[in-house]
Write a structure and sequence with these properties.
Elements (H helix, E strand, L loop, with lengths): L2 H14 L3 H10 L13 H8 L1 H25 L4 H16 L12 H11 L1 H18 L2 H18 L4 H17 L1 H9 L8 H9 L2
Helix pairs in contact: 1-4, 1-5, 2-3, 2-4, 3-4, 4-5, 4-6, 5-6, 5-9, 6-7, 6-9, 7-8, 8-9
Length: about 210
């Protein structure tokens, strides 16, 4: 791979690797978020353990980690679809396998959302509505993530997104669903965490 592709892809990967949830946990409460709740450094676990403020801060940071590399590539090399998609895919992989946390990372939902808000905002719009409605009805963030991820490639096709973008959508769908296998198993057994866990949050913080 030439430097023309390698350097932007590497920069996108390292931006995606920034451990937003870990840093927010330290800043907000002095805790390692990996030692609380599900142990995942993503926005959902920060929300579960620390509440809406830190959770939303992590969510915004994770979305920007996906959006900014793609947007920058679109501005600087608007005609190079391969490089634009490569930056998006690298950011998603960076969040999933964070260099700064020993290649352990989140489930890539928020960062993937950021990538496709830049790549295919029309296809993403109904998915965000499905995600919100699913979480509201079920009480589980994981349900919204699973349904939204599964349906996004279909939305991309219906909205006539370019074929390479749709291909990245399928890749992201498979990756996110694989990362959610433990959640799917807990949903089946009825032991999945609810998105509103104030009592658990208080008990977690008392341990710090």
């Amino acid at each position: 791979m030439s430097a023309y592709y390698f350097l932007p892809a590497a920069a996108s990967y390292f931006l995606g690797s920034l451990p937003s949830g870990y840093l927010v946990g330290l800043a907000a409460s002095g805790i390692d978020i990996r030692e609380r709740g599900s142990g995942n450094p993503g926005a959902a676990n920060v929300f579960h353990v620390l509440g809406a403020g830190p959770g939303l801060a992590t969510l915004l940071a994770d979305v920007l980690k996906g959006f900014l590399p793609v947007y920058a590539a679109q501005q600087f090399v608007p005609g190079d679809e391969r490089l634009i998609l490569l930056c998006g895919g690298a950011a998603i992989c960076g969040h999933t396998w964070m260099f700064f946390l020993g290649f352990n990372g989140g489930k890539a939902v928020a960062t993937t959302t950021g990538v496709f808000l830049a790549l295919a905002p029309t296809a993403m719009a109904p998915i965000l509505a499905i995600f919100s409605l699913s979480v509201w009805i079920s009480g589980h963030i994981s349900v919204g993530s699973i349904l939204g991820s599964a349906l996004f490639p279909i939305s991309a096709i219906l909205m006539e997104a370019p074929a390479p973008t749709t291909g990245l959508a399928f890749f992201s769908c498979v990756l996110i669903l694989i990362r959610h296998i433990p959640n799917i198993e807990r949903l089946r057994s009825g032991s999945e965490e609810d998105y509103d866990r104030d009592s658990d949050r208080d008990s977690d913080l008392e341990k710090t």
